[in-house]
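User: Predict the structure for this protein chain, please.
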Amino acid sequence: MPSITLVTYPRKTTAETSRLPPLFPCSSERSSADPVTSLMRRQYHLIYDDQCSLCLGAVGKVRQLDRLGLVELVPLSRAADSFGHCPSTEERLRKQLHLVTSEGKIYRGAEAVGVLAALFPESKLLGHVILLPFIRPLARWAYRIVARHRLKISRLVSVN
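Assistant: Here is the predicted structure, written as structure tokens:
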């Protein structure tokens, strides 16, 4: 009969565990954050235009899908307060969604939609399709058209 060997690994010391990366490396305020608090933070931050009804409708859908609380929804009007700085210019933030990861990586526009969709079981396939290398240029093109005409679209379509 084969024997089972129990392997144990040494515990990490307090000094090793306190070297967790800050939520946003470019923000000096956040770099000294308590490691426990930074672990409890959400993994993604979605910055959206809170003056756009189409964007508000999309955010409502994200709220429905995000049962695990992975995404913090950050209205553009509060972005500077939430981050201590803005990850992009206000004009650029108004033009497209921005999804910021806890490591500080920023996805914009169609890529933000693809990554966001891939987070949730109901939209995972759509997210992966959007992110395919040969689909991504088409997704960017479609996103630009929708973003450019979002005010007209939101007037034509009832978004709740």
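Strands lie at 44-48, 71-75, 98-101, 106-108.
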